[in-house]
Amino acid sequence: MKRVVVVAALGLALTAGVAVAGTPQVYLDKCRNCHGMPGKWWAKNYGPDLAKTKFTLEQFIRQVRYGSKWEGKPPLAFKYKTRVMPPQVGVEEDEIAAIYVWAKEQAE
Ligand code: HEC
User: Fold this and answer.
1) What is the CATH number of the domain that holds 38?
2) pTM as predicted
């Protein structure tokens, strides 16, 4: 019995570690509140799941810099048409690129 508890606790610790490891801190600070964690399709979020984005890196950077409205933006999925993302300040371009790569890696 004791052994089962230890194994279960270890399993939990490992899962928690995997969920957090590699997540860019800036994502946790600036994006998670609206977007939730990428690839978690069961989570209800205000913004789209970034694991599923079809944006190029350049478009992704524009979205973060300018928020919801910028020239050349692809059409929005219906449920996001009335939702707004404000421009995100204080996020460096290399940080955005890191979020982009990491978020796409979370796709299932
Ligand atoms: C206040 C809530 C909010 C915050 C904070 C926020 N977003 Fe958004 N984001 C949204 C909403 C709502 C949309 C959908 C509407 C749109 O495209 O403007 C969106 C759309 C996007 C898209 C377009 C995805 C696609 O494929 O259509 C990207 C990329 C994105 N956000 C990245 C980010 C990143 C990276 C951060 C953190 C630096 C961030 N967002 C912070 C609300 C937010």
Assistant:
1) 1.10.760
2) 0.86
In ligand 1, the atom with minimum distance to the C-alpha of 53 is 26
Query: Is the residue at 16 inside a domain?
Result: no
Q: Does ligand 1 lie within 6 Å of residue 100's CB atom?
A: no
String of DSSP letters for 18-66: HHHTT--HHHHHHTHHHH-STT-TTS--SS--GGG----HHHHHHHHHH
pLDDT digits (tens, 9 = 90+) for 5-61: 555 555 554 444 444 568 999 999 999 999 999 999 888 899 999 999 999 999 999
66 lines ligand 1 (CB under 6 A): no
